[in-house]
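During the reporting period the student researcher (J.K.) took over the structure-prediction task from the postdoctoral fellow and processed the backlog of single-chain submissions. One of the processed entries is reproduced below for the supervisory committee.
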Amino acid sequence: MTLNELHHLGFVRSAACFLVGDRLRIDVLENSDARNILYAFVQNETIKYIGYTRHTFSKRLRGYQNPSAGQRTNLTVNAKLIASLSNDLAIDVYCFSNPEPQFYRGTALDVAAALEIGLITQAAQYHNENNLEPLWNIMGNVYARQATPVLDTQGAEEILFDYRNEPEDGMIQNIYPVEVEIILGDAYFNHGYFNLPIAVTALIAAHGEALTVELVGGGFDPIVDKTINRTANLNGAPRFHLGHLYTNWVQHNHDQGDTMYVRILSPNHIQLR
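J.K. obtained the following structure tokens:
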């Protein structure tokens, strides 16, 4: 995938990155208050990272500019940006803001969210085919191999283990840990469960397997007596029913509407921050 293809989709240059001393600064030029958007870091016209956020564009970029301890994605991208800028490589951020509302059989669609996995897959494949450095997306190479949706006639478990146990050309080796952002709406904040995105389903074990959940903050004991549920969601994405221990922890450490960080440490072990 090239910068011209981003332009064709409707991405516009919306922020610029530069260094002030040895610190990263990102200046937003357009779409500051846009929400539910796709964005791409572009280095000298080469796409390096594609992401999606429900927050405002400006808030998401502040996370990369000033990452907090434990925010692995923000820390990784921050380091990559500083390294590139230190080598006099120009970095811009392009933004795709949702167009006029789109509907499928009466249901509103988030076009930006729907495009995310497909664009990461396409960009990762383009990088592989053209001998370019891999995307900065931790999951980029996994997406590049995911030619078949997880819900296929082969069954989710077979595809799941293909990705996790077949380290081809070093693409899957040492991929853990992977961090995912989860927005804490009413259900996730009050009702003792949350789902993981389908994009990371390949990194989680099969339905019914044991699950250990570390709860960071507040001195809570880990949750060790739960199992992974892959039948609650029609697309096979993992759902974690964690009950009152999780609810007590999340309400102690977060407010409704916050971002919770889920670090996937292994197929059967996650950490919540």
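The committee noted the following: The domain at 3-107 is CATH 3.40.1440.50 (GIY-YIG endonuclease).
J.K. will present the remaining backlog at the next meeting.
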